[in-house]
Design goal:
By secondary structure, this protein is an alpha+beta fold. It contains seven helices and five strands; from the N terminus they run H-H-H-H-E-E-E-H-E-H-E-H.
């Protein structure tokens, strides 16, 4: 089954961008459910099947992967209620509520975006990755460069927000520099919007996710090792003396 979207779906998203309000959306909910939500769930399942070969720890039910179209406006100055794109996030099992390394897909009338990495992790994960980067920066840079040179994939390094100074606990001349100061890590590929309308959509997304999988595994391994070290440190700190 080759899942893809229809021109009707892209027309809906363009209209939503111009009329981002509940009245407009509810009047066209049937179109959203049929032409956007249903194909996005089917696409997630098609990708899941392929992902069992290279990232089984990231496979979850489609309804847990596909992100809601409703925006969280509680703390945002932008009060528009709906996103103007479709998105899905394949988190690693056990890291669904934190962050961790994962795979991201976004479909809009402007592009099909395929990305992988860690985005703005929680404090302990952030520290774990920074420590790992300090020790393994050469290997990480090499893996990113390999992806950037992947023929026909169109990868680019993520433009990550970064600290202006090295974080506490790291030397100012640490050779990992920008990798330690970063708040996110990974790569992405921005593909033509027309791909969303083609039967090869899932195949092209999976091809890139497969290439990015080792990078995601490395980032998650860094987090898991760091979490074990922190747990061990806490255990030693709270252990009562025998005498």
């Amino acid at each position: 089954m080759a899942t893809h979207f229809s021109p009707e779906a892209m027309k809906f998203l363009r209209g939503l961008a111009r009329n981002n309000d509940r009245e407009w959306f509810e009047a066209r909910r049937e179109v959203y459910e049929r032409a956007l939500k249903a194909p996005m769930l089917a696409l997630a399942e098609e990708i899941n099947v392929a992902m069992m070969e290279f990232a089984p720890e990231h496979v979850r039910p489609p309804h847990k992967i596909v992100m809601r179209i409703y925006r969280d406006i509680r703390f945002s100055k932008n009060k528009q209620p709906y996103k103007t794109h479709l998105a899905a996030w394949w988190a690693r099992r056990g890291m669904e509520k934190t962050s961790g390394g994962g795979f991201y897909l976004q479909v809009s009338p402007q592009e099909v975006l395929v990305a992988a990495g860690v985005y703005m992790p929680e404090r302990e994960q952030l520290l774990s990755i920074r420590r790992w980067m300090s020790m393994h920066h050469e290997a990480y840079r090499a893996s990113v460069q390999k992806l950037l040179k992947s023929r026909g994939a169109g990868f680019e390094a993520n433009d990550a927000e970064a600290l202006t100074r090295m974080p506490k606990g790291f030397a100012s001349d640490d050779p990992a520099d920008e990798l330690v100061r970063a708040k996110s890590w990974g790569v992405h590929a921005s593909l033509p919007a027309e791909l969303a309308l083609e039967p090869v959509l899932a195949r092209e997304v999976v091809r890139r996710m497969r290439l990015m999988a080792p990078l995601v595994d490395n980032l998650n391994d860094a987090i898991l090792v760091g979490q074990e070290a922190l747990a061990s440190d806490r255990s030693v700190a709270t252990r009562k003396p025998l005498f």
